[in-house]
Amino acid sequence: MVNALGKLGIWRHPTQVSDELAQEVEKLGYGAIWLGGSPSAELADVDRLLDATDHIVVATGIVNMWTDDAAPVAESYHRIAARHPGRFLLGVGIGHPEAVKVYQKPYDKIVEYLDQLDEAGVPVEDRALAALGPKVLKLAAERTAGAHPYLTTPEHTRQAREILGEGKLLVPEHKIVLDTDPVRARAVGRPRVQNPYLHLTNYVSNLKRLGFTDEDLANGGSDRLVDALVLHGDACRIAEGITAHLDAGADQVAIQALDEDPLPTYRAVAQVLLS
């Protein structure tokens, strides 16, 4: 079973997480490093970061079911879990259909993949599922430790907690920019929301379920949309936005610092929330 994650983690592409960065965020009190960008089945970066650190959990956010078969992913899970028990959470999901040639309904693919992980002996409590909509959130509750939603709001977190029920893991990702100038902060955040997410059906559909309009989604995203999806301001203001997720039912929030150098942001947020 995976160790307790704590209330704050970081979310970054594996190429953006050096051993030194991992060691620093562990010292700051972060509980998990979520590796995005569809890590490959070998999960070499998970090994690397666990070897470089002492106790922080490393999670995948997420391994893409369309591009990496369950069997080699399960082999990697067993290798890592044997070397670093309690420190690896296997996050899996279907990503977005625009990125692959889809020959199977996404929901059916998820069920089949989870069946294969069962057959390969990957414990339910050591895996999480990328989930946005109600049907997949329910599946996450039934077949995994819980859900790892991406590009969401505290309102989505509240709805997700209601669907998952108590006792199931819920770790939303949220982007942050440490800058008190909203114009500058939006200039950093808007491109990271627009490309690719405002062109992907699953994210657009979820944002509309949350009440955002076609006008909000047009022209790179309205200020209202960008402000909801990219927290910005000083560390206290960012902490308020993170706390809103926690108050809505999140167990942990995986923050994605968009600043060119993320460490000052991680340090500032940790000082408010983890000290």
**Which word captures the global form?**
globular
Q: How many domains would you count in the coordinates?
A: 1
Give a quick account of the main beta sheet: strands, pairing sense, barrel closure: 11 strands, parallel
Mean pLDDT reading: 96
Question: Which value, in Å, is the CA radius of gyration?
Answer: 17 Å
Using the coordinates shown, work out and report the CATH topology.
TIM Barrel
Give the strand content: 15-25%
Oligomer: single chain
Ends distance: 27 Å
**CATH classification class:** Alpha Beta
Q: CATH homologous superfamily, by name? A: Luciferase-like domain
Helix content: 40-55%
Domain Luciferase-like: 20-116
Protein name: LLM class F420-dependent oxidoreductase
GO cellular component, one term: cytosol
InterPro entries: Bact_Lucif_Oxidored, Lucif-like_OxRdatse_MSMEG_4141, Luciferase-like_dom, Luciferase-like_sf
